[in-house]
UniProtKB/TrEMBL annotation:
Record organism: Malaciobacter marinus
Protein name: Uncharacterized protein
Length: 319
């Protein structure tokens, strides 16, 4: 049975809200407005633009998303489901009317395979669940007066894990991820404590900077695309990171892919794997050059330990 989720904001009284930091207090005092934003089809970026204008708050999309996950989790998930489904409606109509798709699971698998169900664009695992999808689909075909077989999630003992052929959401893993607390050391010597679920999805930035690349975590490494004539193969570097304990657990790893798509990709090192978190324009690193150079130096220092394996992981320019 799927675990019920709630909006924490619905259980806070004004006295409890008054004890929160200014930004959260102002947003929660205007929770009806936040709820209205989430019921719209506006992106988080569009919602933040309205918040800045109407509530006079300086807040980034990243910080706003964290706020929603903390206080409006149910409403935020419903917003994501509605937005993803809305973007898929034309394709769903085409599949039913012109392609002969006759049941909900066939449509779900088609959309899943072509990436149409992603909540986060660059995260392969961030998709709406089948149970949420078929409920929206049921409403949609009723409105359109279409004929389609709706297969409930538990029919023939099939569930979300069967459809995706992956095991991401077992209850045991979820309990561990949400209860185990990890201390993350910050640049200033202090620590912040978060559960693993947070660390698998987010990273810590300067609270009031408004920049999602204003990193404050101490264990930050940058894998370059090229350095001193060497071209680093990131796919191979990821294998190297998995094979050996190159860095502390839960470190942030940046990959400079600016030569290809002008982006810096952000990963977190968890249990020998690199978990994708986000990306940002490489043009923005001019604001954090000292931090970037330090992160690069830290990676190269570690990499030299495995210098004898270098030819496996890099090639040379003009070679």
């Amino acid at each position: 049975m799927e675990k019920e989720i709630y909006n924490l904001c619905d259980f806070l009284n004004q006295e409890e809200i008054d004890f929160l930091k200014d930004r959260d207090r102002i947003l929660l005092t205007n929770k009806d407005k936040i709820t209205m934003y989430l019921k719209s089809n506006n992106s988080l970026k569009q919602q933040v633009t309205k918040i800045k204008k109407e509530l006079d708050i300086d807040i980034s999309v990243f910080t706003y998303r964290n706020f929603l996950l903390k206080y409006f989790k149910k409403a935020y998930e419903e917003h994501n489901i509605n937005k993803v489904f809305l973007n898929s409606q034309y394709t769903i109509l085409r599949l039913i009317l012109n392609e002969g798709f006759d049941d909900s699971k066939k449509i779900y698998n088609f959309l899943l395979n072509n990436g149409s169900l992603k909540i986060v664009k660059n995260d392969e695992n961030s998709v709406i669940k089948y149970i949420d999808f078929y409920k929206k689909l049921e409403e949609f075909i009723s409105t359109k007066k279409l004929s389609l077989k709706i297969i409930p999630e538990d029919e023939d003992n099939l569930n979300e894990v069967d459809i995706k052929n992956e095991i991401h959401d077992s209850e045991i893993v979820e309990i561990i991820d949400n209860t185990k607390r990890i201390d993350i050391e910050l640049i200033d010597g202090s620590t912040e404590t978060h559960n693993i679920s947070f660390l698998k999805n987010y990273y810590i930035v300067e609270e009031f900077s408004g920049k999602k690349f204003d990193f404050v975590e101490k264990n930050l490494y940058l894998v370059p695309n090229t350095n001193e004539g060497k071209v680093f193969d990131f796919a191979m570097i990821k294998e190297l990171i998995k094979d050996v304990k190159l860095m502390p657990e839960y470190s942030l790893v940046l990959y400079d892919n600016s030569n290809i798509d002008a982006k810096i990709y952000i990963y977190r090192y968890i249990n020998g794997d690199l978990v994708f978190l986000d990306s940002f324009s490489s043009l923005l690193i001019v604001d954090i050059l000292d931090l970037i150079n330090l992160a690069l130096k830290k990676f190269l220092t570690l990499y030299k330990i495995y210098f004898e394996k270098e030819n496996k992981y890099v090639k040379y320019e003009n070679s």
